[in-house]
Amino acid sequence: MRVQIRVDTILVRDVPEGQQRIPAYFSRPINDMDDSQHPYLQEVAAHLSKQLDDFNRRGSGCVLDRITKFTICIAQ
Question: Which domain, by its residues, includes 67?
């Protein structure tokens, strides 16, 4: 089975005019899994957190405000 996880978020950052809200989308690469493997949410959270850190490393200065959608796609 193939599993992919996608997270839709709202990021915020302070700008001179106030607070700017930015939609952002992060996903985990497709994983091929069998019956002996299980998706671990801690691994998923760590991977998505790293993506946000990489995004901020480019100088965006954004902070995660909320997750608006968490999607798990499973296919055989």
Answer: 2-75
Each residue's pLDDT, cut to its tens digit, for the chain (76 residues) gives: 888 889 999 999 999 999 999 999 988 888 777 777 666 677 878 888 888 888 878 877 888 899 999 998 888 8
Number of domains in the chain: 1
Position 53: which residue type? D
Q: What is the pTM of this model?
A: 0.74
Give residue 52's identity as a one-letter amino acid code. Answer: L
58: amino acid identity, one letter: R
